From TrEMBL:
SUPFAM superfamilies: Bet v1-like
InterPro entries: Polyketide_cyclase/dehydratase, START-like_dom_sf
Name this protein carries in UniProt: SRPBCC family protein
Pfam short name (any one): Polyketide_cyc2
Length: 134
């Protein structure tokens, strides 16, 4: 299965990053392309992307606070993105792993550059800004 791994470090404690990562209502603040998120039930979400109001994307969210991992699985395209947090001194190391089905391999570069890399950068900036205010 094609995919990629990206990493970055936020100058904020794990708890601050976790609050942003675990709260689907906050996804539009940092997840590139997401306009609206609707929580449908235990782990079930529907996401609407900017510019596609008539194309809801069902998602499944799994979170494991013990390991610091949040995984979002797109039920439409079978794409899975996992966000792993780890303490790095007073900072937080964020590792993002994306698994993409072979039939969507041509989208790996776009997903990496335009969605996940931008989202990782935005998550880091938001966590740092909110930590600076606390």
């Amino acid at each position: 299965m094609p995919g990629f791994i990206l990493t970055d470090t936020a100058a904020a404690p794990v708890e601050d990053v976790w609050k942003l990562l675990f709260d689907p209502s906050r996804f539009p603040e940092w997840w590139a392309g997401i306009e609206t998120v609707q929580v449908d039930g235990e782990g079930a979400l529907t996401v609407w992307q900017h510019g596609y109001p008539d194309f809801p994307l069902p998602q499944y969210l799994r979170a494991d606070p013990a390991t610091g991992r949040v995984t979002m699985s797109c039920q439409t395209f079978d794409v899975e993105v996992s966000w792993q947090l780890a303490e790095q001194g007073e900072d937080t190391r964020i590792t993002v792993t994306a698994d993409i089905p072979a039939d969507l391999a041509d989208l790996v570069g776009v997903l990496e550059r335009e969605v996940v890399a931008a989202s990782l950068t935005a998550l880091v900036r938001l966590a740092e800004a909110e930590h600076a205010l606390s």
